[in-house]
Amino acid sequence: MKKLTRALALCVVLALGACALTGCAPSPGSSGGASAGGASSDASAPSGPISVYAREDGSGTRGAFIELFGIEQKDASGQKVDLTIPSAAITNSTAVMMTSVASDPNAIGYLSLGSLDDTVRALSIDGAEPTAANVKSGVYQIARPFNIVMTEDASPAARDLAAFIMSAEGQAIVEENGYVSVAEGDSYVPSGMEGKVVVAGSSSVTPVMEKLAEAYRAANPGMTVEVQQSDSTTGVNMALEGTCDIGMASRDLKDEEKGAGAQATVIAQDGIAVIVSQESSIDDLSTEQVMEIYTGAITNWDDLI
């Protein structure tokens, strides 16, 4: 029995020695908690050239982004000029932007806060976290309006859909989908209309518009609502041309669009999130740093870390 006891003790000693040699630490792939800034424990600091991603010309998100971050500046003649670095990779929709940034550890991009998912990480700007609550309170100031655009010749059906969007039910859908409501409307009374409304434009507004259209159709079974995704400028132009009933724009109207007869109604407020891949340990940038990245004054992550 004594021999057996001594043998067991020897096994324990040998096991403890092996543990000491290997460190008994979690493997690199094991769970070790999150870092203070919200990045996962396996996130690493990006290094090398910054991969800059931008939206296409005509995008309301791009228009608002360059204005809010000072990337759009006046030239010597007083004309506004977009100074986005020419080497920026152009993405033509919110979905493409998200996929592109998610797959590039050195990437930076931007998109509608309401469209954000867990494939990418949104950065705090000037210490303010990008949330709907912070947009509503004004703490997070990188925000813009979502507009629907019609003309004075808009059909009764288009105006009824607009009334639903601004109703208590419509604005509740806005809030439920991560945006900031802008009205405390009355309860919507179904109109019983029959027909079709075509809504076209901004890819940022499209997700919440599809939810609004679905609820409107449920209230009015005789109505069809077709939502066509493109960009804000296309949506405004289609509304002016009469090729859609309602345009969607994720920016304010330009003076020339108003002069042509476009009439905008703000249906929601939305933040613009500056995003990086989940692999990046970057948590916060200043407004000035974002501007310098997008104008080419800063081109390497090592200059920020």
UniProtKB/TrEMBL annotation:
Entry-linked InterPro entries: PBP_domain, Phosphate_ABC_transporter
Cleavable signal peptide: 1-20
The keyword NADP belongs to this UniProt entry's keyword annotation: no
Keywords linked to the UniProt accession: Signal
Region (Disordered): 31-53
Residues covered by the PBP domain: 45-169, 195-303
Compositional bias segments (type: Low complexity): 37-49
Domain of life (superkingdom): Bacteria
Keyword Membrane: no
Protein name as catalogued: Substrate-binding domain-containing protein
Organism of provenance: Adlercreutzia faecimuris
